[in-house]
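Hi L.,

You mentioned the student needs an example of a multi-chain input paired with its predicted structure. This one should do, with 310 residues in total across all chains.
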Amino acid sequence: MTRSVDARSYDLDDLRERVLAEHGGAVDDSIPQLASADPDLCGLALVLTDGTVRHSAQADVPFSVQSAVKPFLFALALLDTGGDALDLIGIEPTGEAFDAVKLETGTGRPPNPMVNAGALLTGALVDGDDVAARDARILRGLSAFAGRQLDVDDDVAHSEHLLGDRNHALAHLMRSEGTLSVGADDTVAVYARACAVLVDARALAVMGATLACGGVNPVSGERVVPTDVARDVVSVMATCGVYDGSGRWMRSVGVPAKSSVSGGIVLAAPGVLGGAVVSPPLDEQGTSVRGRIACEALSAELDLHVFGSR
Ligand code: GLN
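Structure written out for the whole complex:
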């Protein structure tokens, strides 16, 4: 029996019930819209490489994508710069929090595209002469990954822009190092809008599946990014996607992933499936507590660990 057959009959509502019994973690309070999230929201979705979509209850409840957007911003920056983004941003794990106000020693580059410094820069590198043009390009690209039109929650974007002091600090730091050529405030505005894009577990799982399928959206059939871009993005998710928890994640889940402060996690198991989980209470590294438990269970029960026995 192949793993994809297992995923086809896997009971995601049963997994949802199992993880809902867990009660650790705390909802992010960096902006009011995240602080008021329902701590008992829990949705899961899997998208197989043949385009089959499996989901639990609440997989259609919208939430802001937050840092789960970072792999896709990196993909768009690689695409729009013809790969030059790889010279401008590092790809090494930091062992630090996602919003550390720190750049690579010596180069002044962001350490990797999965922390805020790197994501601010990838948002600035996508095509577009101003905030509105880059915002539109990002929304178009993210929608292609999701296979449906996505929208920005303007209130969330406004709060992120207003309250994201560390992001403003990082943008100014990159300006002072000569790493960032566009305006600092515009850079934060574009990043804030990218973080405020509304997804649900189902859409986020399709986005992950597009990376897992080498850049082709398995539901729409559209090639969104070239194979080498998808490979680069998934490689950096594997090493840096869960910030200073990336090593532990790789050992216990073993599937390239990106966490976010809204409690979403996107998974990309190359050649096998994409997945997403959302549950807002977070651990100290900003990873969904139930999301981690769900991903560990999915990995074990569907034999997804990239270094597993299979
Ligand atoms: N918008 C959030 C921030 O910049 C995203 C962080 C995250 O999800 N880890 O700070």
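You could point out the following to them. The mean pLDDT is 96. The pocket of glutamine is lined by residues 66-67, 98-99, 116, 160, 164, 167, 195, 260-261, 286 (CB under 6 Å).

Best wishes,
N.
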